[in-house]
Amino acid sequence: MVRLTHCIVAALVLVNLLRGDTDFWHRALGYAAAGLVLLRLLWAAAAARHHATGLRLSLKATWGYLRARAPRQPGHDPLGLWMVWLLWSLIGLLALTGWMSRLDAWWGDEHLHDLHASLADMLSVAVCVHLVSIGLMSWHWRQNLPAAMLGLTPGARLHAPPDQH
After folding, report:
1. Does residue 63 form part of some domain?
2. Which of 41, 45, 112, 159, CA to CA, is 20 to 30 A from 21?
């Protein structure tokens, strides 16, 4: 579920960012991306019953991680979690502002359209930072993270040390 939603959301966002049109397909792809993010959040909430940490953000964990010089760990590291939440938040806000722009109350409101465009720009920057970070961390850890995320490498199923279960 995690890999599938990641790949589909990434494709939907990429197509929408490249197309840029505000037609039916732009809205449909945007709503589909937001719906998949919601599905992924529900999946994480269900999985949180079985895993202690889940997708919780923590400044303490982030500072500890940075002080330890970004050691490799299974799943998302603390910096990755911040990026996950940033990307998901931007996708959700884009869907919300896109939906609002179609309502009578905000029809033709340039401020809302400008906000939507700014959020799209922020998402573009965040995606670029995400991709560069994956490249840097792949080099730092000497592991092909995209292949691991897709389950194509032996390191794809990393497990936490016994003391972290």
Report:
1. yes
2. 41
| Count of the separate structural domains present in the chain | 1
CA gap 142, 28 in Å, rounded: 39
Structural domain includes residue 164: no
Cβ-based neighbours of 146, under 8 Å, separated by 6 or more: 134, 138
Residue 74 forms part of a structural domain: yes
Q: Are 30 and 16 in contact (CB under 8 A)?
A: yes
Which pLDDT score is estimated for 20? 77
Q: Which domain holds residue 52?
A: 2-158
Q: Is residue 81 included in any domain, yes or no? A: yes
Q: What is the mean pLDDT of each run of 10 residues along the chain (165 residues)?
A: 92 92 92 97 83 79 92 86 97 96 90 96 97 94 88 56 38
CB within 8 Å of 124: residues ≥ 6 apart: 17
**Closest of 2, 19, 9 to residue 150, by C-alpha:** 2
